[in-house]
Structure formats: structure tokens, C-alpha cells
From TrEMBL:
Belongs to the aldehyde dehydrogenase family. Pfam families: Aldedh (PF00171). This is Aldehyde dehydrogenase. Keywords: Oxidoreductase. PROSITE patterns: ALDEHYDE_DEHYDR_GLU. GO terms for molecular function: oxidoreductase activity, acting on the aldehyde or oxo group of donors, NAD or NADP as acceptor. PANTHER family: ALDEHYDE DEHYDROGENASE-RELATED.
Length: 482
């Protein structure tokens, strides 16, 4: 694979290479450079916002049908580009090939959903009165700043791009530097379908992000990423009273009830734990099991996880790949070390290394399982974002619910039981944006189902056509009195 060099993409054109270059290395083989990112100088970020604003002045007046026709073309393009870009995506973000393919499939599906969205929410509504009328128009906000992470960059980008474009907005988007190559190439292709300046891409670190979130021409910020960064984004946007959508971290709980065959559900449960090496915001990160079954269930889980093989994402034999970057690798290693020295839990290292002689050249970590009765442990209370799973014993179902809710994050959750009505009653008591019954993975999501968190897991919802579109529109009430 030849080196891929990318720059910012503004008003339909790639910028020349800047003198601020970031090399990109394969997290599965850090001796292998796969590309270079040219960071966008701040004056060009300024130009990107201005270009988006100029494009907005015309784009906002296009018909709903025209926008949807272009979204349909974009959906088709994403699907067409999948085979060209999927291996590059794996080489820059460390996921498995099937995970990268899923990212493209989901991204295409999101754009297709908005291409077929009913027009009801976008068209003016009239309320007749004896004394006149009220007409409520839905106006696009303007320029949107979108900042997306590295773990599933295609679908997470389209979850913002689809609704904001359909609503008549324009965008300046910043990919994560840990997954910018494939996404930038894809966005440049999609941008060709739309008028120049509607879609713009910039690259950089906090200084670029700060300008994007504070610029006076930006009317809304849509961010997916960590909770701490989300708080900084919110604070920056607050200086000029911008709207925000924040999809932040999760520490998702799975509650296992007595009346279910734990061994039978393990394949589905573990898919929710270890997909993307646990680096998914709504991955299962805590499993609560009945106290008297804790030892048995821990052994059953370890037996299954010990079959996993860990290697490069392009290795068909691998169950999952490396972590994405050195910082995250160090965080996960610290979680493991702290758990090992605690006298309140048991830690088991599991799985097998593929090509162990190459492990020092990548951010690999074997899966780890932790057994404990202490809900207050760091490894339970904090989001690990790696291949670690704690099993925590509970005495009563009420205690399991209390444990699940005793956390500042609340993205997703799950309840596992043969008694669906009982599971439903428990699900209603969990503080989370979504609760799944007998599943907890990408299979649990459905286009059109609201996705987002409560507490410190975020503000707003994505994937729900009505709620999401509303967040990119401004109601404008016009009243006539006779």
C-alpha cells in the first residue's frame, strides 16, 4: 500500500500541503507508516467556515427533494467506495476488516434513511385562528461544526452529515487524526455530489477544534468523543450560545437475571464486549450476575474468551485487533495493573497471540476478565475502552439496578432474561439513553431509533429522524392578526 497524503478540503478543493505534518502509523505495526496528514492552518480553518457560510446562503433555498436526491447519491457512493477504502481504514484505526466493512454499510444506510425521510418536519405548518393565522417555518441553522472520533468514523460522520444536509445546513468537519485518511478521501468524493462549500474538511488538534467551536459564523456543534473533551466543546460553544449535540462516553451495564442460560447467551454478550477491542462507546463494560452464580459464570466466560486470537485487523484468523493508539493502550494497561494489585478482585489474562514476535510493534492487549463483588472498583466505575470486562456479583435484582445506575454515564445498557416482561420492567428503571433486552451490540441498533445518552453520556439524540432533524432546524413563527 503506497503512502496516502491528505490535506484539508475546502470549497471543493484540497489545500496544498502545509508545514504541519502528522505521520500516520499502523497501530498493528507501528513500524509501518501508511500516510501523512497535513494539519490545516488556522487561517484556512477560517476560510473553511466562510466558504461553508457562503454556500449556505444558496443551499438553504434548495428544495427538500433536491437535497434528498443528493443524499441518495452520497449513500450509493459510500457503498461503492467501501472496497477501495476498507483496508486503508483498518490500517489506520486498528479494527478488523469486517468491522470496517460494517462501518461503511452503516454509513451508507444512514444516508439512505435521510434520503427517504418524510417531509413533514421540514415543511411549514399553519394553525388557523378566528383572528388570523400562525405559520411555523423550519429554517436551517447555518454552518455546523462536526467533530468525529476514530473508532467508527464513517457511520459516526454520516449520523451528523445526513440530517444536517437534509435540513439545509452546511458543514466544516474535523476527523480524528487517528482515522482521517479513508474518511477524508470519502468525504471529498461525497462533496463532489453537492455544491462547492457545502462539505468542508479540516485537520488538526485542539487549536483547530477550538476555532471550530467558537467561530461566530458556526451555529451548532455536533461532537462525538470522550466526556472530558465534550465538556470542553460545550464550554467553548457556550461563549457564543451555540447549540450542541454531544454523544459522549459510556460505561454500559449488562444485567444478567437468574432465569437465563448464561452459556447460551455468551456469544451474543461477548460480541457486545469485544467488538473493536472494546473501543466502542456503547460496548458492554460491566456485567452484573447473581452472587451465587458469579464463580460459575466467570469460569464459563473465561473459557469462551480464552478461545480468542488477537492479531492484526487484516489477519482473517484474528478475533479482534490492537488498540488504536499509544495513549489508549497505556490507559488500558493501567486499568489492568491496578486491578491485579487489588485484593478485591481476581484478574485473568486470556486468549492467544497471533505472531507474538510482532506484538512489541503494535498496541496489542490480550483480553482480560475480572471477578469482583465491589461495584466501587475503578475498573467498574470508569470506562475502560479496551478488551477488559468485569463481572460483578449482586445479591438482589434491586441491587443490580442500583449498581447499574450508580455511575455518571448512561449511554446504553441491557437486561438478559427468559422472562421478557420482567426484563422490560427492569429496563424501565435503568438510567440510560437505550436499554436492550437479550442483546447489546451493533445488532441492537436500528435506524430511526433514538441514540444518545443521559447524565454525562451526552446531550441530544442521533439516528431518530424527527428528533435529530429538529436539532438542526430553527422554528420561525409568523403570525397574522386580522
Amino acid at each position: 500500500m503506497s503512502l496516502v497524503h491528505i490535506t484539508g478540503f475546502i470549497n471543493g478543493e484540497f489545500l496544498p500541503m502545509s508545514n504541519q505534518l502528522q505521520p500516520v502509523y499502523d497501530p498493528g505495526n507501528t513500524t509501518n507508516q501508511i500516510g501523512t496528514i497535513s494539519n490545516t492552518p488556522l487561517h484556512d480553518v477560517e476560510n473553511a467556515v466562510k466558504s461553508a457560510h457562503q454556500a449556505f446562503l444558496k443551499w438553504k433555498d434548495t428544495s427538500i427533494q433536491e437535497r434528498q436526491d443528493l443524499l441518495k447519491k452520497a449513500s450509493e457512493l459510500i457503498f461503492q467506495q467501501k472496497d477501495k477504502l476498507k483496508e486503508l481504514l483498518v490500517s489506520e484505526h486498528g479494527g478488523m476488516l469486517w468491522e470496517a466493512e460494517t462501518d461503511f454499510y452503516l454509513g451508507s444506510g444512514v444516508m439512505s434513511m435521510y434520503a427517504k425521510a418524510p417531509h413533514d418536519i421540514l415543511i411549514p405548518k399553519e394553525i388557523a385562528e378566528d383572528t388570523g393565522w400562525i405559520r411555523i417555518h423550519k429554517r436551517p441553522k447555518g454552518v455546523i461544526s462536526a467533530i468525529v472520533p476514530w473508532n467508527m468514523p464513517i457511520v459516526l460522520t454520516m449520523m451528523k452529515l445526513g440530517p444536517l444536509l437534509l435540513a439545509g445546513n452546511t458543514v466544516v468537519l474535523k476527523p480524528s487524526p487517528f482515522a482521517a485518511l479513508a474518511l477524508t478521501q470519502l468525504l471529498a468524493k461525497i462533496a463532489e455530489v453537492f455544491p462547492k462549500g457545502v462539505i468542508n474538511v479540516v485537520h488538526g488538534d485542539a487549536d483547530v477544534g477550538n476555532l471550530m467551536t467558537s467561530h461566530p459564523l458556526v451555529r451548532k456543534v455536533a461532537f462525538t468523543g470522550g466526556t472530558a473533551t465534550g465538556a470542553a466543546v460545550m464550554a467553548s460553544a457556550a461563549q457564543s450560545i451555540k447549540d450542541v449535540t454531544l454523544e459522549l462516553g459510556g460505561n454500559d451495564a449488562a444485567i444478567i437475571l437468574e432465569n437465563i442460560d448464561f452459556k447460551a447467551i455468551l456469544p451474543k454478550l461477548l460480541k457486545g464486549v469485544f467488538t473493536r477491542s472494546g473501543q466502542i462507546c456503547f460496548a458492554v463494560k460491566r456485567i452484573y450476575v447473581p452472587r451465587d452464580k458469579l464463580d460459575l459464570y466467570f469460569d464459563l466466560l473465561c473459557e469462551e474468551v480464552d478461545k480468542y486470537k488477537i492479531g492484526h485487523g487484516l489477519d482473517a484468523e484474528a478475533s479482534f485487533g490492537p488498540l488504536n493508539n499509544k495513549k489508549q493502550w497505556s490507559i488500558v494497561q493501567k486499568f489492568i495493573e491496578n486491578a491485579k494489585v487489588s485484593d478485591q478482585c481476581e484478574v485473568r489474562e486470556l486468549g492467544q497471540k497471533i505472531n507474538p514476535e510482532q506484538w512489541d510493534q503494535g498496541y496489542y492487549i490480550l483480553p482480560h476478565a475480572v471477578k469482583t463483588m465491589e461495584n466501587s472498583l475503578e475498573i467498574v466505575q470508569l470506562e475502560q475502552f479496551g478488551p477488559i470486562i468485569p463481572l460483578i456479583g449482586y445479591e438482589t435484582v434491586e441491587q443490580a439496578i442500583e449498581y447499574a445506575n450508580d455511575n455518571e454515564q448512561g449511554l446504553c445498557s441491557s437486561v438478559w432474561s427468559d422472562n421478557i416482561e420482567l426484563a422490560y420492567e427492569i429496563a424501565k428503571k435503568i438510567e440510560a439513553g437505550s436499554t436492550f433486552i437479550n442483546s447489546h451490540s451493533f445488532d441492537s441498533l436500528q435506524l430511526g431509533m433514538p441514540f444518545g445518552g443521559v447524565k454525562q453520556s451526552g446531550i441530544g439524540r442521533e439516528l431518530d429522524i424527527n428528533e435529530t432533524l429538529k436539532s438542526y432546524l430553527e422554528p420561525h413563527s409568523i403570525r397574522y392578526i386580522k
